[in-house]
Fold these 2 entries.
Entry 1:
Amino acid sequence: METTLREVIKQITFKHLKKFKGQVFGQNLTGVGWVAGTLPKLYEKDGVIELPMADVANGGMVTGAALVGRRPFYIIRYQGYNWLNCIFIVNYACKSKEIWNKPAPMFIRGLSSEGGLGPVSTSSHISIFYKMPGIKIYSPMTKNEYTSTYKKFMKSDDVFYVSEHRKSYENKIEFKNSLKKNLDIILMPISVTRFEAEKAKNYLNKNGYKVGIIHLYELKPFVLKKKWISMIKSSKYGVLMTDNDYVDGIIRTLAHKINEQTNKKVNVLGLKDKSAGYTLKTSNFPPSALEIINKIKKIKAKKRL
Amino acid sequence: MSYKNYRLKIFEKASLCRNFENEVFKRVNEKLINFPVYLSAGQEYVPSSIAQIVKDKKQKPLIFGQHRGHSIYLSFGGNIIELIDELLGKKTGCTRGMGGSLSINSNKINMFGHEGLMGSNACMGVGACFSSAKPTIVFLGDASVEEDYVLASLSWAAKKELPILFVVEDNNYAVLTKKKDRRDWKAKDVAKAFKLESYDIDDQPKKIFSVLKKNLFKKPIFINVNTKRLFWHSGAGVDEEVKGDRLTIEKKFLGKKADKIHRNIKKKIENLWKQRLEK
Ligand SMILES: Cc1ncc(C[n+]2csc(CCOP(=O)(O)OP(=O)(O)O)c2C)c(N)n1
Ligand SMILES: [Mg+2]
């Protein structure tokens, strides 16, 4: 049986604890669900540390653990809690290497899920980290991407924010970019929207469109590869980016960077600019395949006029 | 060592801090230093006494200070020239000219810099202590201890029985707001509620010694030490004349020997500043 991303995260965590004497911090870890099955069943003696219900202090305490070289994993079970947890991470851990020459490498696992929890943001919420210096941000949705992110972390002395999505834990496949010259449009999806973007791309390509895709998971630093730039430049309508963070979050920043380097229009679809309720009708979901398809149809129609 | 000699040793440290701060005071007024400076004159007996106790116990703790940190740095043996250079914004400073007065740091004495969010060092100190199992000291102010995340850190340190010492340098002020206008509780009582061994004392070295001699770094301890800030919260000025600061009291008690030490240190520091300014 092929392994899932969930298994890979669990194995990486096990190795980090046992081989590298690392630590894993978080709230309500050692109980129901074991962080959606991504955490091996280990306890404080093995380095899995239950933190109190003190999110602001906890971010600082894990920073302390990082300062003394324990390379902690820090699990934030819903990214809505980033607001409280980010304070000392971005203001201390991320600055410590540059100011005091004391790195504080930590691997933050921020979990997101898809709507349904009302005003507590369950989707991605990494924009608040994004603008700060001294942080690296990744959003791996596949096994290879996750493994590569962890390897990078172990070679680095930076703070890593790893934006996960619960929906990806069952994933077994790897995504491939699909690019050629003179496409109509190129999708650049992030996080869980990559699954829907793939569906949209396949549908559109069967229906007379020429749609390419660039899967994004290395978000900061964000590097546009040369090949991507030339493919985007040769496309008819530029780029459509999708994300499960708010639409005025990091995709606008990334869109601007892409626009600067390609001179092409970059459209964005993310969480809507509204507060979410609990019901299907009132929740705030990331763009679906259908929404992506409709958006591309609209872009094309508008261009024709 | 006789008790008087012990007090002399502490006096020597405190005198170094006081003379240093007096010199910085002058340099700020001369506008040689143009960023915010947090002088610790008047409060130096807190870190000096603790540093002496720690030294006698042959311990080398992790130190998490906050903005008013010159005396902490100097008491625990931080390099003076590097602190002068730091305040002059030189690359040879203890924080490579990036730390100013607020964010000083020293690898040599395990002192971690502060980033300016008051009280954050309690969280970092507790985390570092937990993960390294090394003895740790966190210095706070009487206002910083009010931060919710400081209280949460006290609670966790108690729960995990860490080898940590929390020191509140209680000068009664948050900038210029007095304690009585901010809260109706004593830090010591709150710490005690979290099951920490806790004390509220003044900055007599004898008192500090007596509360730390038994359990320092054997269990978490919280001490609120009442002390006096001689100068402005930030910058070089005087809010009101303070009478009876600890260094003056001790100097009087220790007599001629202390006078001589104080004079010599003053000269030494003036010369060091001159040398670094000429460089
Ligand atoms: C989180 C935060 N809130 C407010 C401030 C502004 N501020 C700087 S110093 C200070 C007073 C601190 O008082 P205390 O902790 O007693 O230390 P002291 O200055 O008396 O040594 C305040 C309110 C800050 N730097 N950080
Ligand atoms: Mg104060």
Entry 2:
Amino acid sequence: MTTTTATQWIEACAADDIDEEDVIRFDHDGRTYAIYRSPDDEYYATDGLCTHEQIHLADGLVMDHIIECPKHNGRFDYRTGQAKGAPVCVNLKTYPVRIDGDKVLLGLA
Amino acid sequence: MRGSRPESIVVIGAGEAGARAAMALREQGFAGRVTIIGDEPHAPYERPPLSKAALTDEVEPQAAFILTPERLAEHAITHRSDTRVLAIDRDAHRIELAGGERIAYDRLLLATGASARRLSIDGAGPDNVQTLRTLDEARALRTRLRPGSHLAILGGGFIGLELAAAARARGAEVTLIELAPRLLARAVPADLAAIIARRHEAEGVRLLTGTGIASIETDSTGHVVSLSTGERVVCDAILAGIGAIPETGLAERAGLAIDNGIAVDERLATNDPDIFAAGDCCSFPHALYGGRRVRLEAWRNAQDQGNAAATNLLGGSDAYEAVPWFWSDQYDITLQIAGLADEGSETVTRELGDDARLDFHLANDGRLVAASAVGPNGKIARDVRLAEMLIARRATPDRAALAAPAVKLKGLLAG
Ligand SMILES: Cc1cc2nc3c(=O)[nH]c(=O)nc-3n(C[C@H](O)[C@H](O)[C@H](O)COP(=O)(O)OP(=O)(O)OC[C@H]3O[C@@H](n4cnc5c(N)ncnc54)[C@H](O)[C@@H]3O)c2cc1C
Ligand code: FES
């Protein structure tokens, strides 16, 4: 197995910039991402825009492992990106996240 | 049929509620026949974009499908388009289509929606006064919106205001005429409606509130709307956004109970246990508001009732009591309302900066019964959603906490 592109780790924020069970927006290189901290204190990242319309998910509500879009309440599991039903049917892209000391690093291919 | 598992379920109306119900039947494992019958030529599509993006997009708007023909086929849902249902024979458990064909059902869902109210005034008819409810109407209207054209909008409700914003985005001149002394008088608190009015005026919409219409004249060059003030508004197109009327004719002729819509119980069943109704066409008792009978014209309600109706069509006993929720987009601002604001006797306001504001509506006993907000979507949506959860829990939150922007509503939810 070969990997063609190495993952680049980008510093997104400090670990305590995000409250537990919350989300923030992170923009990098012309793209926007959403970075989550779950109730069990794990960190995750997805594309920043809803797959229904171009709406920033970071303005939405995190409940457990669900991010709910602030526009029409479409729901995704932010750990897997899975769309949980109407009105969203296209999954969200997810990205790996690493914690380095007190920093949250976002893995981009 | 009562009690036994149905084998054939027919849905009348291929809109939001009907399409969602049909899909939910499959999601819940129903393997029998599912047929949706609708009188429009398209597969089920979303209506909210019709007064928003569909009017401002550069290209001819395409339907935003709720269920594409492919998905309908994949889930073995038979969709009969362009087909109007004329009658229900409850004894024989059969419906009759235009053209005479009959289809048998074990259980029936009425999801016939609402239709735009027409203006009854001298000189007004479907040829010169347009309405906006369907994709075809949106397409027709869009061609009238161009720089320099002049649109008269009758009615300062959501459809009229969204259309005004879209028309300005396309460079058309807009005069909006509303009989009531202010915009959105039925649904939105005065302070929020004032923010919306100011924004429309800043965008160049001419707002004439407290103004009636005396008559409409049309000739080959255009239209003249004569106002109660004596003024004559010359324009190229007229749209009436003066409300919607529930489509109850079919139910009425079949002897089903009607009460500002097809009257259903909390399970969405009509007075015929094999016939249910969902969406804009029905009125139902709302448990959160002491069983008050309400009829909603709202997208999420149509979806949620479609889901609940599917469960109950299959013999379930889901009591529908979702918090009513509505949104509207005008320019780059959003209005969201959760709950029934007219149940409140006191308002607590949370200021969210100079362009956003959230009103909480509390009942006499301190219970939060509704929340209304205006502002950029990103500034208001989360708080309205949390308010909705507080409403569902019949919470009696502290007034000072509600008013203070620094207090996170999520914290109130935990308490
Ligand atoms: C322009 C517009 C913008 C909107 N914007 C918003 C918004 O921003 N936010 C919001 O919350 N809500 C909005 N709504 C409201 C929302 O779209 C409706 O609440 C929702 O569509 C209701 O769904 P329904 O299935 O009950 O009815 P509908 O979607 O109206 O579907 C009913 C269908 O049944 C068909 N039908 C009726 N009688 C028969 C018959 N006898 N035989 C066959 N077919 C029949 C009708 O033609 C129609 O296709 C908007 C509505 C419109 C029109
Ligand atoms: S934009 Fe996210 S659900 Fe519609």
